[in-house]
Amino acid sequence: MKPLELVRKNLSYAFFLLGVVWLVIAAYTGYPIVIWPVATCVVAGLLLRLRPSERFTWAWMTSTAAMGLIIAAYQAYYWLPFIGGSLNALAALTAGGFAVFALVHLVMLFLGGTKPSAVISAAQS
Which of 19, 52, 68, 91 qualifies as a cystine partner to 41, CB 3.0-4.6 A? Predict the structure, then answer.
């Protein structure tokens, strides 16, 4: 089984996991604005579990993935100027981590663009 098919089959759990990661980031940084991705990822996971075939669910999932991509990419971009300075190790770790997290959200955005019937049939098999 391909990794993308595995994620597509368990998309609701993937969004729950993203919400947990954002929650850890929110707790670590202390920024209340980071609570928004936590809430939207958890709601996307719940909608995918409870009402997977509705249009609102897929719109919510796609917008959640896009918001996470924008925030993670911005955080990676924000930390880039600090690489090479006195915060080199911290900046490289943070920028790299957020860049990987942005790629994860990009994959989720790609999966959100697939037809709901394809995801539902993959989850049922």
Answer: 19
DSSP 3-28: HHHHHHHTHHHHHHHHHHHHHHHHHH
Q: Where are the domains of the chain?
A: 3-124
Give the span between the Cα atoms of 30 and 10, in whole angstroms: 30
85: left (phi > 0), else alpha (psi -120 to 50), else beta?
A: beta
Q: What 8-state DSSP symbol labels residue 30? A: -
Condensed to tens digits (0 to 9), the pLDDT of residues 43-69 reads: 999 998 998 888 888 899 999 999 999
Instruction: Find, among 112, 114, 81, 76, the residue nearest to 95 by Cα.
Output: 76
